Amino acid sequence: MQLEGDIVTPQGLVRGHLDIAAGRIAAVGGSPIDAARAGEGGRAVLLPGFIDTHVHGGGGRDTMEAGDAIETIARRHVRHGTTAFLATTMTAPLDDIEAALKALGPVCRERGAQSARVLGVHLEGPYINPERLGAQPAHAIPATLAEVMRLNEFAPIKVLTLAPEMPGHLALIGPLRDAGIRVQLGHSAGSFDDGVAALNAGAAGFTHLFNAMTGLHHREPGMVGAALAHGRHAELIPDLLHVHPGAIRVALRCIPGLFCVTDSTAAAGMPDGEYRLGEHRVQKCLGGVRLADGTLAGSALTMDQALRNLVQVLGLDLADAAHRVSTAAAQYLGLSDRGRLAPGAWADVVVMDAQLQLRRVFVEGEEIDVVADA
């Protein structure tokens, strides 16, 4: 199979063709062009498939439902260009988390037809600070290594959100890192010093930067200050509700490995109305998702809209925006064969027009029916 258009490659924008064989990219050929010319003359724009490390739900379903919910979620998000993602849990009683992970395990091992690849799990709770729950239910508990590794047996935990200031948590960061789990700091009331100590202990990044953590003040820099001063990686929600564009620009200048996530809920890809988020009921209205008291509760964002926000509102060039919604997350997860359009990589491809409207999606070489009802 051959796709033609303006191709975002690791070396820059190329006008030419991309060859796909046996689910992988066989070759990329063409001539370099300036990014400002992408899509001119009605040409298709080819980008690496989006990678989202923070997905709670979509298509009306929530990961904590267990059962077949993840299949609906994977089919819905792929129709917005997300070719791979981490299924993300909520803070809940351990029995509920275990049930969710048992349902996720088989899907992590084998991708369903017409679906995104589920790379593993982002365990966002329950090891957070009860003072910084955000929209998380009130089931926060201290972590133990034995408990995390037991949960990891049900489904592979790739990312774990931790409040480092909680008793015993700092000492867990190194062993979790050594077990292949990336610790992200979040839902935290910790100080700047707590954040720096956690990074020195091996923490990899920050969960939804700026949200549900101590903010930056010039005399108390907080967890945000630790991220901006010392962080190499962080996830950020670019729905323009969770974080002001000015703060996003600050993060882009400070954190080299900043990548974008949706923190999407069951409301993603759905009309306004009431949806589930863990044990909560949330309301989608005016583009946001909130608890009854008005607290932002995840989002209804999809990754194609995240890309458009980066380019059309933040002013990023297309290559940088594609990096933030795909390549940077792949690098963070240690994936050398995703998040890039290069020979040998999986053929995860998003095809858009010059206005960055999605036209076609391929996952591991399989073309997705982007107009099908998930």
Quaternary structure state of the chains depicted: single chain
Look at the structure and name the CATH superfamily: Metal-dependent hydrolases
Question: What percent of residues are in strands?
Answer: 25-35%
CATH topology: TIM Barrel
- C-alpha geometry: globular
Please state how the strands of the largest beta sheet are arranged side by side: 3-2-1-4-19-20-21
What does this structure look like?
There is one protein chain. It contains 9 helices and 21 strands. It has 374 residues and is an alpha/beta fold. The chain has one domain: Alpha-Beta Barrel (TIM Barrel), CATH 3.20.20.140. It has a 7-stranded mixed β-sheet with strand order 3-2-1-4-19-20-21, covered by helices on one side. The protein has a 6-stranded parallel β-sheet with strand order 5-8-9-10-11-12. Strands 15-16-17-18 form a 4-stranded antiparallel β-sheet, with no helix packed on it. Strand 15 and strand 16 form a beta hairpin. Helix 5 crosses helix 6 and helix 8 crosses helix 9. The mean pLDDT is 95.
What is the structure about, briefly put?
With 374 residues, the chain is an alpha/beta fold. It has nine helices and 21 strands.
List keywords for this structure.
single chain; 374 residues; alpha/beta; TIM Barrel; 7-stranded mixed sheet; 9 helices; 21 strands; globular; hydrolase; carbohydrate metabolism; metal-binding; N-acetylglucosamine-6-phosphate deacetylase; GlcNAc_6-P_deAcase
List the helices and strands and how they pair.
Elements: E1 2-9, E2 12-21, E3 24-32, E4 45-48, E5 50-55, E6 57-58, E7 61-62, H1 69-78, E8 82-88, H2 94-109, E9 117-123, H3 145-152, E10 157-162, H4 169-178, E11 182-185, H5 192-201, E12 205-206, H6 222-230, E13 233-236, H7 245-254, E14 257-260, E15 273-277, E16 280-285, E17 288-290, E18 296-299, H8 303-313, H9 318-332, E19 349-352, E20 358-363, E21 366-368
Parallel strand pairs: 1-4, 5-8, 8-9, 9-10, 10-11, 11-12, 13-14
Antiparallel strand pairs: 1-2, 2-3, 4-19, 6-7, 15-16, 16-17, 17-18, 19-20, 20-21
Helix pairs in contact: 5-6, 8-9
Protein name: N-acetylglucosamine-6-phosphate deacetylase
Domain Amidohydrolase-related: 45-361
InterPro entries: Amidohydro-rel (IPR006680), GlcNAc_6-P_deAcase (IPR003764), Metal-dep_hydrolase_composite (IPR011059), Metal_Hydrolase (IPR032466)
